[in-house]
Fold:
Amino acid sequence: MMFDERLPTHLWVSAGLARCSGDGVPAMVVRKGDPHGGLVLVRIDHLDGHTQLLGQERDIEGALTWRVICEDKPGEEPTTFAYIDRATKRDPDLWVIDIEDRQGRNPFD
Structure:
């Protein structure tokens, strides 16, 4: 039997939310996906009109990394919500986390 050493998604999402809470950073699960292996999108609102949407990737060694999928900038047409809508229709196991942080920190990084 193969053993996967990765933590179930629901556990590390809970840990990231606890980190946010401890730092006084508002964060919430907008959409719950598969508790064991769902991918995660993190939407970070910088509270100045700038928003980033980050998606998970695994590098060649299997380590979790993050990349900016799209950004909303002040005065431009928003794209993050449309991307989230399309992505959740394609992947019912997807998690979506919203964070409000002026510094743009990703607690899952």
The radius of gyration is 14 Å. Strands lie at 27-31, 40-45, 51-58, 64-72, 95-100.
